[in-house]
Amino acid sequence: MEFSEEVLLSMYKKMLLIRYFEEKVDEFFARALIHGTTHLYVGEEAIAVGACVHLEKGDLFTSTHRGHGHCIASGADVKRMMAELLGKETGYSHGKGGSMHIADVEAGNLGANGVVGGGIPLAVGAGLTLKMKNSDRVALCFFGDGAANQGGFHESLNLASIWDLPVVFICENNVYGMSFPVKKAIKAKTIAERSKAYGIPGDLVDGNDVFAVSDAVEAAVKRARKGKGPTLIECQTYRWKGHSKSDANVYRTQEEIENWKKKCPIKRFREKLMKENLLTREQAERIDQAAKKEIEEATEFAMRSQEPNPENLEEDVYA
Amino acid sequence: MPEILYREAIRDALREEMLRDERVFVMGEDVGVYGGAFGVTQGLIEEFGEDRVRDTPISEAVIAGAAAGSAVTGMRPVAEIMFMDFTTFATDQLVNQAAKIRYMFGGKARVPMVLRTPAGAGTGAAAQHSQSLEVWFTHIPGLKVVMPSTPYDAKGLLKSSIRDDNPVIFVEHKLLYNTKGNVPAEEYTIPLGVADVKRAGRDVTIIATSHMVLKALEAADTLARSGIDAEVLDPRTLVPLDKEAIVESVKKTGRVVIVHEACKRSGFGAELAATIAESDAFDYLDAPIKRLGGAWSPIPYNPNLEAAWIPQAEDIIRAARELKERT
């Protein structure tokens, strides 16, 4: 797809927003300002942004435990996200969900998910709704390489394929399921080739190339909107940070991490935009500053916000 | 009032709700032309078509998960899990997803789904096709658990469950499918959370669930002949639980026998007993609370062993007499 300059710059800004959001969260954890745990999306920004740029009003998506990127890419309010991470009343879930449970159902975000692979069957259900309502909307389903080995993955892809549901399964292969390398976890060479087992198209893309992701998702979304059923896309990427805050990175080398950092999706996108004269150095600097400012404002908003009232502890268990 | 089967009452509820609300649909294994393993959904596919009566592969996790996902996005699915034993496969989607979505998301989502499933022993199906696992789900905030014992209750409660905006685990008992009862032809619903006194009495309260209600009524008839006037109370829904009705009944009789088919240990009877012990009814008790439930073993195959595993009317009679003799 040929994007307008405006869309391209907005994609660039979203990638930066994700990066700075995650860096701020990382800092907060280091300073023990956030409790619980978190899973950072640093290094994987091109996937969320390259996929979510194809979301239209009424489209839906499910996310993962590493879900901040999908939220931001889909247009979530970073103020309310940061407030949720700080457990504040103004957060998306009024402080009851935290990092792994940010959702905005009205806006089509069916939620991050603390269970690996837990969102995949939900995305199939969302696709079923769209199909039964004869809608041309689609459901994007993000999950990691680890989730591809869950039983629910198989059940979900099978059901979505036999019913031709408008679901785009987007596997973010970031090389490790916590510490277990995907090469040891999966005998097949790629996750994408599993699509053959379900009789659906499979696509393998460089997950650090926002255009490659975008092209693959665009084709899959088009197919789904026409009622032709699901697609499995594997985006190969790398998680720069540890799996969660307690990860000492004993299962990989610093050299490996540094090598992947050289393939930074944001740097790559910026260089491409500059090469094509769509972005000047000054513009890049302005966008960078604007993104940083937005995260600072989100942080201030979150810090200033009220704690939830314990009297509401048992509220919203039932509708 | 026409007399119909429990199975037919459930089917009628499904049919009426599908006619009433186009968002309601049925999905599960062999629910289409086969009509469901126990014949509950017979005829629905002919009337509503494949789109609204969806045969699924043998995939309980995605049956539950797709039900939750479609419920969150605006449908009102009624999923069938062929045997309650197989809800084990569906548990992540029910417990970690459906039950928690609303709360995790700060009250900004609804999950109006029903998961119907046949439970219970007495069919010779042995250890993996006979269990009553309702108590697992009663332990999960966000789920509702309904267990009707009569055709009338089954229909009225299923209609309410389908209209409820929360995930409801609707537990049917295989031995009840062929039982008959009066069910009005005209529209009615039964609210969730209202117990029903199936037989009024003064001497002892027998709190029974699902198929055990029938055994409790049989026991009450025998007890009456020996001068013990038993009250049989069916909570009908375990979550929400009609604590008030239970406390009132126990205050009146001063004696309680609790009976369910699920294993006695950590069964719902423990919750009922504790509810009574913590309530005003405690002061009215004339004897310790008596619990009856399934034996502490997997459910055996041999018919005599199976019958010994399940609480029987004689066990209820013996328990009620023991309580009466203490005072």
- What structural class is derived from the secondary structure elements of chain A? alpha/beta
Would you tell me which CATH topology of the largest domain in chain B applies?
Answer: Rossmann fold
Series of H and E elements of chain A: HHEHHHEHEEEHHEHEHHH
Any idea how many domains of chain B? 2
| Strand adjacency order, main sheet of chain A | 1-2-3-7-6
| Level-1 CATH class name of the largest domain in chain B | Alpha Beta
Rg calculated over all Cα atoms of chain A:
19 Å
Number of helices of chain A: 12
Q: How many domains in all of chain A? A: 1
Helix content of chain B: 25-40%
Q: What proportion of the residues of chain A is helical, as a percent range?
A: 40-55%
Distance between the termini of chain B: 42 Å
Sheet with the most strands, sense and barrel status of chain A: 5 strands, parallel
Average pLDDT score of chain B:
98
Distance between the termini of chain A: 42 Å
Question: Any low-confidence stretches of chain B, pLDDT <50, length ≥5?
Answer: none
Structure description:
The complex is a heterodimer of chains A (319) and B (327). In chain A, 44% of the residues lie in helices and 10% in strands. In chain A, strands 1-2-3-7-6 form a 5-stranded parallel beta sheet, sandwiched between helices. Chain A has a two-stranded antiparallel ribbon with strand order 4-5. Chain A is built from 12 helices and 7 strands. The longest helix of chain A has 26 residues, at 5-30. The radius of gyration of chain A is 19 Å and the shape is globular. Chain A has one domain: Thiamin diphosphate (ThDP)-binding fold, Pyr/PP domains (Rossmann fold). With 319 residues, chain A is of the alpha/beta class. The model of chain A has no long low-confidence stretch (mean pLDDT 96). With 327 residues, chain B is α/β, with parallel strands linked by helices. Chain B folds into 2 domains: 3-182, Thiamin diphosphate (ThDP)-binding fold, Pyr/PP domains (Rossmann fold), CATH 3.40.50.970; 196-325, 3-Layer(aba) Sandwich (Rossmann fold), CATH 3.40.50.920. In chain B, the strands form 3 sheets. Chain B has a 7-stranded mixed beta sheet with strand order 3-2-4-5-7-6-12, sandwiched between helices. In chain B, strands 9-11-10-13-14 form a 5-stranded mixed beta sheet, with helices on both faces. Chain B has a two-stranded antiparallel ribbon with strand order 1-8. In chain B, α3 (60-72) packs parallel to α4. Chain B is globular and about 60 Å long. The interface between A and B is large, with 45 and 44 residues.
